[in-house]
Design a protein that fits this description.
- The chain is mostly helical.
- The protein folds into two domains: about 70 residues, no CATH class; about 25 residues.
- It has five helices and no strands.
- Helix 2 packs antiparallel against helix 3.
- The longest helix is centred in the middle third of the chain and has 19 residues.
- It starts with 11 loop residues before the first helix and ends with a helix.
């Protein structure tokens, strides 16, 4: 399993082409493990992986680790559904400021 300080075997950042678009999810994001499990399901459904492939096993481990991380870290704040909707309607800078408690 990869972290910022210890990239895993399937490190997408290291494997990406120089201008290849990427999207990274963090362990504190409540949607992260859901997104990873959806990715797993899609990879298997499309025939690109089998359920017991090392890449899929590691992805499941990461999703589980993210849930555990959120349970034990203050930075992984749980936001209400109403609050998430409110924040999602803001621009990026305003969202960042609101979440960090700083002026926009």
């Amino acid at each position: 399993m990869g972290t910022k300080n210890n990239p895993g075997r399937f490190d997408c950042y290291a494997n990406a082409d120089p201008d290849e678009p990427m999207f990274i999810v963090l362990g504190r994001d409540a949607a992260a493990p859901i997104a990873i499990r959806a990715w797993i399901d899609q990879r298997i459904a499309s025939g690109k992986n089998k359920p017991d492939d090392e890449q899929i096993v590691e992805a499941r481990e990461i999703a589980d680790a993210m849930e555990q991380y959120r349970g034990g870290h203050a930075r992984a704040k749980k936001l209400s559904k109403k609050r998430r909707k409110e924040i999602s309607r803001m621009g990026v800078d305003a969202r960042r400021a609101k979440l960090n408690g700083t002026p926009a």
